[in-house]
Design brief:
The chain has 233 residues and is mainly alpha-helical. The chain has 7 helices and 6 strands; from the N terminus they run αββαααββααββα. It has one domain: Jann2411-like domain (Jann2411-like fold, Orthogonal Bundle), CATH 1.10.3300. Bound molecules: zinc ion.
Length: 233
């Protein structure tokens, strides 16, 4: 599927999914928000796309957090990954909505970021001599999740970055994204999907206004419409 499509869950989808992989998308702009977006249709059916431990392993690789999907992830790690995801989302929506952040979510992300960072490793070098190296996050799915928590902490814990976090302005889209536009006024997760739908809706509303005016020439033109929705979503 299109890596950047967020509005395409068919109504006839059989839930719960056997695997969420076909429904992942990558327009969050950073790993923490891509993880949050693995819970889809938050406005409606709350569709889980990290269904199995294999899903989590594949997702970490697809997201570029690890080079290769970890061979085996315990089921408890999957549950903890979902818990981390929901804590990041609780912080994200509180920041976007301008409400105080839940302390439990802060504490949970704080515990995860302690697992981020590199660890030393000693290997046999190509010349047959020992070589000091670094373990990659692939060595531990939990460290990979720690890296995502660290991304969330950097994003939400600094005023400049926090101001760029958005929830898509469409009522029927729950995509979270990081606004990297120069002006910082992006409202839609994607112009190809939600932005276009909003544009078409505005166009239809304008046409209906015009039709009504033509049907009743005595109708006074309505005051100038506002220039579309404003502000952060
Ligand atoms: Zn959207």
């Amino acid at each position: 599927m299109d890596r950047n499509a967020a509005r395409d869950l068919p109504p006839e989808l059989v839930l719960p999914l056997a695997s969420g992989a076909p429904w992942w998308y990558w327009l969050g702009g950073r790993p923490a928000l891509d993880l949050v977006n693995t819970r889809r249709e938050r406005w409606n059916r709350e569709v889980e796309t990290l269904v199995t431990p294999e899903d989590l392993a594949q997702w970490l690789a697809a997201a570029g957090i690890v080079e290769r999907a970890p061979a085996r992830i315990p089921h408890s790690d999957l549950l903890e990954a979902r818990e981390l995801r929901e804590a990041i989302d609780a912080l994200t929506t509180a920041c976007v909505g301008g409400t105080p952040v839940p302390a439990a979510a802060v504490a949970l992300v704080d515990r995860w970021i302690a697992r981020a960072g590199t660890r030393p490793a000693l290997r046999c070098g190509p010349d047959g001599l020992p070589e000091l190296a670094e373990r990659g996050p692939a060595d531990s799915p939990r460290r990979a999740l720690g890296e995502i928590a660290l991304d969330a902490a950097r994003m939400l814990g600094t005023p400049e970055q926090r101001a760029r976090v958005r929830v898509c302005g469409a009522a029927d889209c729950s995509a979270r994204f990081y606004d990297r536009s120069p002006a910082g006024r992006r409202r839609w997760c994607s112009m190809e999907t939600c932005g276009n739908v909003a544009k078409a809706r505005r166009h239809r509303a304008r046409r209906q206004d015009n039709d009504r005016e033509q049907a009743d020439p005595g109708l006074r033109p309505s005051p100038a419409p506002s220039r579309g929705p404003r502000g952060a979503v």
